[in-house]
Design goal:
The protein has 5 helices and no strands. It is an all-alpha fold and about 90 residues long. The chain has one domain.
Length: about 90
């Protein structure tokens, strides 16, 4: 499980702990939050992303993310497909 890791692998080039990442995600600095979420979408395993954020949180911040074009396109497609699935079927 991701929470057991002291340093999240998807932010290998910064000295941030799992606790630091979670604090950023639940904090008020939207720019830092967008940076962390973008790093997750580009570098984390799919199943690990959901250990940090919910689909609703991803939808809310997605327009603010700076992503590689192919990553943005893939996530835009996924979000559009998921939007058509009733909540009880997710």
């Amino acid at each position: 499980m991701m929470s057991a890791l002291k340093f999240p692998y998807f932010i290998w080039d910064y000295d941030l702990t799992d606790t630091d990442v979670r604090a950023i995600l639940h904090g008020d600095d939207e720019k830092q939050k967008a940076w962390v979420v973008a790093r997750m979408l580009e570098s984390a395993r799919y199943e690990d992303i959901w250990q940090y954020i919910s689909l609703a949180e991803l939808r809310a911040i997605f327009p603010k993310l700076q992503l590689k074009p192919q990553v943005r396109a893939a996530w835009e497609f996924a979000l559009s497909v998921w939007a058509t699935i009733p909540d009880h079927e997710r």
